[in-house]
Amino acid sequence: MAHKVSKTIHDLKHYKYLSCIITNKTSVVYKAQHKKTKQIVAIKIYENTPLFYQQEIAALNKLQHKNIIHMIEHWTGDIYYYIVLEYVPNADLLEYILKLKDQKILFIEAEVRFIFKQILEAVLYMHEHKICHRDLKPSNILIGEGGQHFIVADFGFARDFSDGQLVIKSCGTIDYASPEICCGKPYFGPEIDVWSLGVILYTLTVFSEPFYGYNNKDIAHKICRGLKIFPKDFSVQLKDLLGKMLNVNAKYRIKVEEICRHPWITVEDDEVVLCP
Ligand SMILES: Nc1ncnc2c1ncn2[C@@H]1O[C@H](COP(=O)(O)OP(=O)(O)O)[C@@H](O)[C@H]1O
Ligand SMILES: [Mg+2]
């Protein structure tokens, strides 16, 4: 919606436009400032996608957690839909991974655990509140002040699964999509988040995604076959956990509560401070 950017700048109510953070296919995100309180915020604006807007505000209205983006307010304009969020000053997790990869630096296992446990806490809380995210991936994990705080954002695909209904809606990015999504099979929701968490955990460990291919069809084919082998340098416990998260059969896939009790997660590391 790049050509519409200038139009939305004049419709920010009591916020002053500062800069454009990103323009995507369905949304644009601005950095802005409250005219009176001077609070810096991020304003996410959707066009023609009321469903994403509705899903995002419904989820964020229900969720208050230190590892989940905080929604300040929202409103509907003539054409656009506005969501005001706390501003998160650093890059997202994808940019951070790419920067370290460029510098040929990998995380040690304690650093992976430090990051992953924060994402896991957010997802455990969401699932306890019957919300599944359906688009978990590094570009939707923001990095807060100081570079040590990880915050799950982008709830445009989020769904309340308290109705216990199976759905078949395809969501998210193919690389992080579960076999159910790839094959168009019905799912409840939490199980597809667990799969995506598995892909995130793998990616944090080696800085490359477990499923890759020439095109989406090729990637989907590999996802549905599952992962047979893990890199040799993965610890036994990590392989065990990943095997359980990336179980192709959703019925037997580990649940978020069980991940929290897994021995790889409950290890007590010395204090971790990530490099900037
Ligand atoms: N609250 C925020 N503070 C700072 N940057 C943000 C914020 N929300 C989103 N962004 C930036 O905008 C990008 C897109 O936002 P996101 O909510 O993921 O929307 P989309 O649906 O377009 O992917 C994020 O990857 C992040 O870089
Ligand atoms: Mg996103």
Describe, in plain words, how this protein is organized in 3D.
- It is a single chain.
- With 276 residues, this protein is an alpha+beta fold.
- It has two domains: 2-86, Phosphorylase Kinase, domain 1; 93-266, Transferase(Phosphotransferase) domain 1 (Transferase(Phosphotransferase), domain 1, Orthogonal Bundle).
- It contains ten helices and nine strands.
- The strands form three sheets. The chain has a five-stranded antiparallel beta sheet. A two-stranded antiparallel sheet has the order 6-9. Strands 7-8 form a two-stranded antiparallel sheet.
- Strand 1 (15-23) and strand 2 form a beta hairpin.
- The longest helix has 20 residues, at 109-128.
- Bound molecules: adenosine-5'-diphosphate and magnesium ion.
- Adenosine-5'-diphosphate binds at residues 21-22, 24, 27, 29, 42, 44, 69, 85-88, 92, 139-140, 142, 153-154, 156.
- Residues 21-22, 24, 27, 29, 42, 44, 69, 85-88, 92, 139-140, 142, 153-154, 156 line the site of adenosine-5'-diphosphate (ADP).
